[in-house]
Amino acid sequence: MVGVSEFQSDIRRPSGNYAPGVGLSARNKMNAWVSVFARAGKESYGLQTYSDPQKRFSAVYTSAALIDFDSAAGKERLECRAMLISVNLTNGGHQNIYLIGFQGISEDYRFSRARSRLTIYADKQAIALGSPVGFRRQGSLGAQELMFYKVNWATLKKIGAAKNVEIRIDKLNAPLSNESRELFKQLAEATG
User: Fold this and answer.
1) What range defines the domain where residue 42 resides?
2) pTM
3) In sequence order, which residues have a C-beta less than 8 Å from that of residue 9 and are 6 or more positions away?
């Protein structure tokens, strides 16, 4: 697949010619765009930083992990990141908030219409993170959804230190790769 613009893609035929969207299901097209929106091809691996120009907050976050979830209804690709948001308070102090965030593209607000409860199994120990706070918008590709689950530093460290991690959002489940667990560990070590 070759990206043409922010909202368009083409398939390269073996002959070298292009055919718009030939052979891909709507779900596969959406999954492919998750990678594009995550900037997975351009972003360097590791921890990233951001400072709000208006100095309201700063962030340290992991590079994108693309996670393929399985369920009886099929596969769903989500972008996943762990992050620390440090909010500057009016009294001169700051408040730190750790989050695990997911971004998905679906046909019709798949996650925000469900409860989308997140449970992480770190070495078979269940960590229930509950329902998300999120944002959604309808785009030309479908419904884009961002979901944020609040965690604490100790939970982030536990996920990073585990040998096997499985993520479950309702009936969807997927393993967290070694590289992604390493990113969670790096964030915990850098901000603890």
Assistant:
1) 26-191
2) 0.77
3) 1, 2, 3, 20, 21, 29, 32, 33, 36
